């Protein structure tokens, strides 16, 4: 990878950055529009992330953050852990964005010593739809989100440095989410859930989960981060799946903010909040994807997967749409359940489960695990059943013993279904699947919600 | 260094930790007392930091974070950058502490979607002196402090990893302080300073510094972090000087909170805030000092110096006593001014300016810089003047040319004044000097303030 930007790149990035700065400068006129500012900041995030990935690649390689791409003919070393750059840019953009949605003039005077004497009324601050400004008490939530994201970056870098063991790794997101949970506890503290209609006779209309709600949020962050981390291994898939999920959430947010939705809507704030977190994420991820797409010029590292998963978890929790988020992560969830037999060693798990690169054809083929010791009878029968359901490719010898099978990942399953293909076509196929599942999920969420709840909150 | 805790250590740490947990559990009775909780958390911070430094030392060395102690007969390799462990523990303790000062019951009910409908009155929350709870809008300041500290740790680790150049390094604290400045801008935004009496005819009573106030805060963080980083190089000095400064600020805070001070006092909040940030810092620093004191078993790394300086800067800014902080950093400031001729290459600067270790006597002697090329006339005359003022040790040849001098650091100056001594006696001497200067500074601040201001805010 070149360490400098080409002339075309420099001019394109510069003009995009200048345009964004222009838009930002314009928001100083009149009341300022946080959503417009957020879009401009996302453009700036894209530009700076794109340039920094180029400039810092060599420094990362010198310090040992490098790896070889197993699925290529020529295996150059390329920079690893570039997701950390992406995350740092994102965090700084979120910080710089603060003055737009959270207006400073709420404090009008002070007697010194940190006391506020005159406060403006909330109504004087919230002015119209796109000009919407948050009440000041949302600032703490926003800052706690940044804190949790920064924590996951710190811990992710720690993981990339010290190679933490797998079973400890899984818990990293649960540690990083603590700042947000603590602030949620002191700042909001609502742990009640709306009960689905069929269960209302038993549980009432609202059910207070109490501390279990915090466990739920921690589990959500573990699930979100790790499920993205598990669906990985081919060029671009980590970043691109995150982008698809982010785009779907943005689509859902926009449904609540569009001119067709009655205003003021109780969930407007939450979905604006969600957009402010996601738009810059899309900016930095696009810049990373352009370097990580087939053929990859950089690797993203575990840091990126943790970080992306945490962005979604934080967004879902503070935007109050955690159930929708779970719907959007269904393909990842399926991949996790599907991987479970190997992850929990019911079936032997080889060191790598990446698809096999066939150097002759240049295509990826599904990788296989050989069973040197015969499998226990019930497990072997399950594998045969999966084979019949076309959910696995199992090889059986003359005596009916299972001797090998495809590895248990959705990536290999895709290759079982559609045969060998080039790395980018494989990634595109999986992304199409992710998009289709997500759109279906959103459709179900908004159309079918009335079957189990008395009203859709849209 | 042993990687495990001895039996005595284990039992001592365990019993201290249990006592702290007991105290914490007690604060759940009745209204809870944040200051007591803060002290208990600081105890927990000490225990966990002490144990983690032991447990993680080997892992750090394996990943290349290690160094040799130049001032010892036997130069084993020992872990480096242990300040990062210290900082991580500190940050998590600050997060866990949040529910104590910031009470959750302020939000009593919600209509969903993140809106608060019923709020309790502030008076119902603030109850008495030690039971003092912060109004909820201070939470944003507190979180921004944590964010800035976490940023400096991230950037500090980046520095330790990538060996950033000296002139870029200096600016790291200014980048890390940005989150706090942005939140200060939206959350408080007061940039007026009280004008000293002699200047009032020209400037009025209050002078609005405007954006210069933000520059001032950024400069304060640069000064605070780097001045601690420059006064370094012998076992324990980085941590111990930070402890002395922290103790002096705590002493100053207690002056405002003691039963002799009239209550309610406008600065009570600020000084409680300051205590909450400093007590856990003292906890983790003590644990680090016990490993870093002569003969050092670990090194602290630049990360610690940045981190400690940032704690003071954040504390001074949010506690509204930045001028007092500058008074307490005077010895560091003197060291910086004194070092300037070498730092800015007016006089040659050797790679290392540590005191010279005399292996025969086991004592440290002041290290010297040889001037191979003759110095410019005015500079040579200045050095001779400094020699006459006993502020430098200069060697002159028969023709009156300066051929060598002691290095320009306060550590070497101390050795010039008091002759060779063992490393720990040198550190103790410098710490005594720091303490004396600090106490004098506080005395001046409270006794002499009336000469330039119409009233002491105490």
TrEMBL record, chains A, B:
* Listed cofactors: Mg(2+)
Q: Which GO terms describe its cellular component?
A: endoplasmic reticulum membrane
Judged by the first EC level, this protein's enzyme class is transferase
Q: Which domain of life is it from?
A: Eukaryota
User: Where can this protein be found?
Assistant: Endoplasmic reticulum membrane
Its pathway, per UniProt, is: Protein modification; protein glycosylation
Q: What does this protein do?
A: UDP-N-acetylglucosamine--dolichyl-phosphate N-acetylglucosaminephosphotransferase that operates in the biosynthetic pathway of dolichol-linked oligosaccharides, the glycan precursors employed in protein asparagine (N)-glycosylation. The assembly of dolichol-linked oligosaccharides begins on the cytosolic side of the endoplasmic reticulum membrane and finishes in its lumen. The sequential addition of sugars to dolichol pyrophosphate produces dolichol-linked oligosaccharides containing fourteen sugars, including two GlcNAcs, nine mannoses and three glucoses.
Q: Which PANTHER family match?
A: UDP-N-ACETYLGLUCOSAMINE--DOLICHYL-PHOSPHATE N-ACETYLGLUCOSAMINEPHOSPHOTRANSFERASE (PTHR10571:SF0)
What name does UniProt use for this protein?
UDP-N-acetylglucosamine--dolichyl-phosphate N-acetylglucosaminephosphotransferase
Task: Write down the species.
Answer: Lophiostoma macrostomum CBS 122681
